[in-house]
Amino acid sequence: MNEPPDGRPVQSFSGLAHSREFLEAVAAVGRAQASKQLGQEESRSRRPVLLGFTAVVTLLLLLAREQGWGLGVKQDTVPRVFYGSWATTAERYADRGFTITGDSLRLLTGRGRGVTYPIVGVRREKSDSTRFTFHYRDGDLSMTLRLHLEPDTIIHLASLPRVAWTRKSR
After folding, report:
1. In degrees rounded to 5, what are phi and psi of residue 29?
2. CA–CA separation, 88 vs 106, rounded Å?
3. Do 79 and 59 belong together in one domain?
4. Do 83 and 133 have their domain in common?
């Protein structure tokens, strides 16, 4: 065995040290460490963005709840107290009225004519449990009908607050 000038013995690399498998294994470890570091850097760089996004979504949900944008007050079904046909004794609207079922709103427009619309949602006002907004569809249009229900089953439309509508049939 040849000794180098500094007097240390020379080690020979044999077997696995020179094999292709060893080189591939070393290369694979290097790639895994590099991808792990890259993944950590990417997750660190995404962390502020994700935190900011989460904060914005949380603030929007809180604002929506405070403003009554429909979160938490929307009902799946029409309250049964509204079921039936409603009419008024007000002379101007004597031939008008409306009928509410579990899934439709029929508006009587005079002279025996009427139009039926599907109800797609009902919202009870958070601040006043006697005020409701009915959401219905007219083709592609979203429409609303706002009502105030008095305890003795009288309805006032928001658009006609002085006209009292009473149930004439269920």
Report:
1. -65, -40
2. 15
3. no
4. yes
How far apart are alpha carbons 92 and 68 in whole angstroms?
34
**First and final CA of the chain: distance in angstroms?**
110
Tokens encoding 156: 């006032």
Q: Give the pTM.
A: 0.55
105 occurs within a structural domain: yes
Whole-angstrom distance, CA of residue 77 vs CA of residue 104: 11
Report the domain count for the chain.
Answer: 2
**The two structure tokens encoding residue 51:** 């935190």
- What is the C-alpha to C-alpha distance for residues 107 and 22, in angstroms, rounded to an integer? 83
Q: Domain ends where: 67, 82, 109?
A: 67
Cβ-contact 78, 100 below 8 angstroms: yes
CB atoms within 10 A of CB 156: 19
CA distances from 131 to 14, 63, 84, 148 (A): 88, 21, 18, 4
Does residue 16 carry a pLDDT above 60?
no
When the pLDDT of each residue in the chain is averaged and rounded to a whole number, the result is 77
Q: Looking at the structure, do residues 122 and 42 belong to the same domain, yes or no?
A: no
Structure tokens at 10: 């020379």
Same domain (yes/no): 140, 92: yes
